[in-house]
């Protein structure tokens, strides 16, 4: 998903919840972990920009909504009445429109395909059984299921606002929990979809990349840092690896590696007392100057300035 598409979305959302655009869409977030955000529907309803009877078209992201109030959706020419306590899954490949029928309560989260790349074993979200079914994925929940989904969204809100170094790993787990909650409500396919060769290669790349983190001691060092390092480990040509990752994520091998290194650098700067040299050495840089130059490209700040600035929720 492009940053432009997200920016356009948040330009509309920011006035609805009284938050400036930079707080909703941190400039470098998508380069690190894909994109994820979670919202309270009641806050949107209180805005004059959200009114019953106004359609909201699907955009270029995945969306999971817990709707505690009545609404309706138009999907492939059919109008679907959605009763209270429904879990709705939206994908950018299936256009739909949504109309709130009354003041809304509930939550929704947005995420890109890249956000789930580390945890889907090479599958794109659209390859999950939940999105393979021909019917629109909207599920009426029992009171117990609605309470469970509400608790998951509450944990999402809490974790997103925290300064935990690995909060996005937890947020991915919460998204998966919601996906499984929906998947359990539909008939299982005879066989799960088999990942393609490209999907398997993407998954193996992510596994190799993530296996190097987190760094827990200053003596630990990242071994694989370049596209060639990974291609050699995966026994493929570097150009083939780059094409597969570019097709599946929209990003180059070098960009994915750099984003993950920057993510780890931020965690170490924020949550450890390691010196800049120890962090630079652990991440495989020859000296602090090279590390600082790299870090500025991803954070628009020097490592020292990033470490001393006041932490704000992403």
TrEMBL record:
HTH araC/xylS-type domain segment(s): 203-309
InterPro entries in the cross-refs: Homeodomain-like_sf, HTH-like, HTH_AraC
GO molecular function, one term: DNA-binding transcription factor activity
Pfam families listed in its UniProt record: HTH_18
Keywords: DNA-binding, Transcription, Transcription regulation
Domain of life (superkingdom): Bacteria
Record's keyword annotation contains Transcription: yes
SMART domains from the UniProt entry: HTH_ARAC
PANTHER family assigned to the protein according to its UniProt record, in alphabetical order: ARAC-FAMILY TRANSCRIPTIONAL REGULATOR, TRANSCRIPTIONAL REGULATORY PROTEIN
UniProt protein name: AraC family transcriptional regulator
Organism: Hymenobacter edaphi
């Amino acid at each position: 998903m492009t940053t432009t598409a997200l920016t356009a979305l948040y330009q509309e959302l920011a006035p609805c919840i009284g938050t400036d655009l930079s707080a909703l869409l941190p400039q470098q977030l998508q380069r690190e972990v894909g994109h994820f955000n979670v919202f309270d529907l009641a806050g949107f309803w209180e805005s004059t920009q959200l009114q019953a009877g106004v359609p909201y078209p699907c955009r270029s992201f995945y969306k999971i909504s817990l709707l505690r109030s009545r609404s309706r959706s138009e999907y492939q020419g059919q109008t679907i009445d959605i009763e209270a306590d429904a879990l709705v899954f939206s994908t950018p490949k299936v256009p739909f429109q949504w109309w709130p029928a009354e003041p809304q309560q509930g939550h929704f989260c947005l995420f890109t395909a890249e956000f789930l790349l580390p945890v889907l074993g090479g599958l794109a979200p659209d390859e999950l059984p939940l999105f393979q079914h021909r019917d629109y994925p909207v599920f009426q929940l029992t009171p117990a299921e609605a309470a469970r989904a509400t608790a998951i969204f509450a944990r999402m809100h809490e974790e997103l606002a925290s300064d935990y170094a690995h909060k996005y790993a937890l947020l991915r787990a919460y998204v998966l929990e919601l996906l499984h909650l929906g998947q359990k409500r539909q008939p299982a396919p005879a066989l799960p979809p088999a990942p393609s060769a490209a999907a398997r290669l993407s998954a193996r790349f992510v596994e190799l990349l993530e296996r190097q983190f987190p760094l827990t001691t200053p003596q630990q060092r990242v071994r694989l840092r370049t596209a060639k390092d990974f291609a050699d480990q995966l026994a493929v040509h570097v150009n083939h690896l780059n094409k597969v990752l570019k097709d599946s994520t929209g990003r180059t091998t070098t960009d994915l590696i750099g984003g993950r290194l920057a993510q780890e650098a931020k965690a170490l700067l924020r949550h450890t007392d390691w010196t800049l040299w120890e962090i630079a050495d652990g991440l495989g840089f020859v000296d602090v100057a090279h590390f600082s130059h790299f870090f500025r490209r991803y954070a628009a700040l020097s490592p020292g300035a990033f470490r001393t600035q006041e932490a704000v929720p992403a």
